[in-house]
């Protein structure tokens, strides 16, 4: 009884303690000038995001600005209608979704930074460079490694590692580098589609509880087909010759293997928290961060190494993390106005789930797949489990259709010294589209039930 009274008092003093009833009144702002203004602002912000490569204006800046303006306009309308609490509850819900994603990604990025600093990836790169492989062998090996590494690491890091190998071995062969980079982008995106850890979109789907951890692996064969079909065709465009021998040296720093093991343990912890304890995976990841923090103390103390875990946290991709904040809050605001319900009706009720989910993948090649998938999750259309798996697949691999459709493609354009461009990728888009269609067909055949 005392606890109930205390909570009642706290809910009056601090609204955060008040529980939302879930029945707060919503206003349809889709035909209101505020709604139109919000849409225009979001489109303008996303144009800035898409041309970041040329303007060097960080993508997080416009979307955060627009997110703040959108919610300020919503709050103003609701306050004028005497409904200020509804806006607050909705905004807190969006902030909760973002905070879980932020903590999860922050831990993953910290581990990746720690492995980079311990030269784990550099050692892998040197090992591949020194193998003396032919161009065709290197093409397939970097492709398969990208496919199998990206489910654990993110597709951006995976693409950069494999891209560095290709540049080190075949940097003078423009044609080989161009084709190999296309292959790496397709493989990294395909590999990330069958794992909750492989892409931001799959992570969002898993954290939302739409698809269970083990169910993602039913997308393995469709994802593999998405990579292998275009790779098999591109294979014949590479001359069967060997590059000049290259010898490099790089030693993994002490503690590197320990950090890799702790990273896998952290993943297992996050999965266990979600599957067995029914807690958010982000909580398991934060526990996993403590593993690394404790290990960093002994790494520094044991070998007098300048290994500072808080520097690794600081080196996380904060521009990307803040970009997610802007996207989630902006899309959440548009959804609260009523646009997502309208879009859901337009797409899923009119086109049908299969066609709509295929369209989602194509859209993700033009617009980043993160806002597209977050919009689908927010719309929450009535779909079977097979359809949710389909949209997870298409949103993950659809970005491969264009070089600007994924973080992997954008990063490799910057790494390739002009060898891999939007146009050079576009030449292979029909082949990639064939793999896209084949993966969808395979999914329907295998997971149709």
Number of domains: 2
Uncertain segments are 1-23
Global outline: globular
Query: What percent of the residues sit in helical stretches (DSSP H or I)?
Result: over 70%
Strand tally is 0
Q: Quote the distance from N terminus to C terminus.
A: 51 Å
Q: Which structural class best describes the helix and strand composition?
A: mainly alpha
Largest sheet data? none
Q: Please, how many helices?
A: 22
Strand proportion, as a percent range, falls in under 5%
> Average pLDDT, to the nearest integer?
83
Radius of gyration: 23 Å
Listing every helix as H and every strand as E from the N terminus to the C terminus, the arrangement reads HHHHHHHHHHHHHHHHHHHHHH
Domain Citrate transporter-like: 49-396
Signal peptide: 1-20
Membrane topology: Multi-pass membrane protein
Keywords: Antiport, Ion transport, Membrane, Signal, Sodium, Sodium transport, Transmembrane, Transmembrane helix, Transport
């Amino acid at each position: 009884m005392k606890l109930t009274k205390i909570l009642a008092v706290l809910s009056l003093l601090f609204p955060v303690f008040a529980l939302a009833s879930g029945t707060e009144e919503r206003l349809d702002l889709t035909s209101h000038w505020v709604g139109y203004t919000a849409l225009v602002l979001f489109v303008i912000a996303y144009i800035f995001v898409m041309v970041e490569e040329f303007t060097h204006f960080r993508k997080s800046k416009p979307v955060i600005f627009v997110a703040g303006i959108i919610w300020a306009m919503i709050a103003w309308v609701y306050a004028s209608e005497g409904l200020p609490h509804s806006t607050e509850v909705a905004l807190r819900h969006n902030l909760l979704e973002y905070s879980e994603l932020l903590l999860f990604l922050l831990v993953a990025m910290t581990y990746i930074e720690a492995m980079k600093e311990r030269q784990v990836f550099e050692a892998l790169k040197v090992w591949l460079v020194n193998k003396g492989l032919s161009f065709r062998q290197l093409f397939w090996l970097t492709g398969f490694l990208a496919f199998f590494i990206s489910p654990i690491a993110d597709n951006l890091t995976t693409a950069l590692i494999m891209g560095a190998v290709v540049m080190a071995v075949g940097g003078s062969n423009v044609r080989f580098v161009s084709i190999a980079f296309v292959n790496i982008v397709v493989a990294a995106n395909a590999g990330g589609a069958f794992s909750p850890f492989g892409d931001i979109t799959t992570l969002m789907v898993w954290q939302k509880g739409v698809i269970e951890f083990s169910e993602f692996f039913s997308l393995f064969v469709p994802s593999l087909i998405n990579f292998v079909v275009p790779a098999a065709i591109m294979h014949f465009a590479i001359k069967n010759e060997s590059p000049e021998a290259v010898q490099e040296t790089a030693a993994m720093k002490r503690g590197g293997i320990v950090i890799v093991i702790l990273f896998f343990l952290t993943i297992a912890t996050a999965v266990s928290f979600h599957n067995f304890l029914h807690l958010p995976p982000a909580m398991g990841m934060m526990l996993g961060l403590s593993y690394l923090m404790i290990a960093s103390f002994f790494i520094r103390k044991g070998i007098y190494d300048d290994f500072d875990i808080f520097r690794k946290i600081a080196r996380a991709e904060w521009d990307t993390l803040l970009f997610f904040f802007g996207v989630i809050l902006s899309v959440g605001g548009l959804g609260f106005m009523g646009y997502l319900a309208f879009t859901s009706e337009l797409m899923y009720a009119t086109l049908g789930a299969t066609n709509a989910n295929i369209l989602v993948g194509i859209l993700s090649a033009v617009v980043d797949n993160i806002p597209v998938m977050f919009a689908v999750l927010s719309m929450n259309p009535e779909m079977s489990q097979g359809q949710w798996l389909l949209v997870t697949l298409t949103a993950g691999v659809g970005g491969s259709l264009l070089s600007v459709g994924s973080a992997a493609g954008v990063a490799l354009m910057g790494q390739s010294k002009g060898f891999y461009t939007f146009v050079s990728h576009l030449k292979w888009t029909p082949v990639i589209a064939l793999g896209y269609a084949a993966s969808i067909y395979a999914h329907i055949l295998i997971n149709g039930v």
